[in-house]
Specification:
- The protein has 174 residues and is mostly helical.
- It has one domain.
- It is built from five helices and no strands.
Length: 174
């Protein structure tokens, strides 16, 4: 099976990324609604008193903490959404048979920056976890694999930059 062009592995992966992209938007909408509900119930718990159980009342009392956790989750979904969108755009060029499109360098760098930002935000949430009783704090927080992935993406961006440069030079050659 071919790696580039229509009907290739890259076009199949592009379809998968499209499905994931839509699922992430739906997830982001669901988290936004849950965030709105958490804030609404935490500031006005008398909205649905007949529905409240004792467990629900405990969650409502921790509403702002729960809303903060939902906000952090929404931000991480947004970061993954940016990564998947950049990958979708890269795979469009791969499906078109143009892997060294100049915009792919920028897109890969964006993926690297977002991966690093998601990892740093994970450290922030880990550092704030003693303040949030709903989060279990793990002992180890540093993930070498994540940082290795960030470095690999930046190296691939430079490879794509060099490929785009060589392609421009080849186009100028008579």
């Amino acid at each position: 099976m071919r790696a580039l062009g229509p009907g290739s592995v890259s076009s199949f992966l592009k379809i998968i990324l499209d499905v994931v992209y839509v699922a992430l938007w739906i997830s982001l909408g669901a988290v936004a609604l849950a965030l709105l509900a958490a804030l609404l119930f935490s500031f006005n718990p008398d909205l649905f008193p007949a529905v409240m159980t004792s467990e629900a009342a405990q969650v409502v009392n921790k509403g702002p903490v729960f809303a903060g956790m939902l906000l952090a989750f929404a931000i991480s979904i947004g970061g993954v959404l940016v990564i998947v969108d950049a990958l979708r755009r890269i795979f469009v060029t791969l499906t078109a048979g143009d892997p060294f499109h100049p915009n792919n360098v920028r897109r890969l760098r964006l993926v690297g920056v977002m991966l690093a930002a998601l990892e740093i935000s994970r450290y922030v949430v880990w550092g704030l976890s003693p303040l949030m009783p709903l989060i279990k704090r793990s002992e180890s927080n540093f993930n070498l694999t994540s940082w290795f992935s960030v470095l690999v993406v930046f190296v691939l961006a430079e490879v794509f930059r060099e490929g785009a440069r060589l392609r421009r030079e080849a186009e100028l050659t008579i």
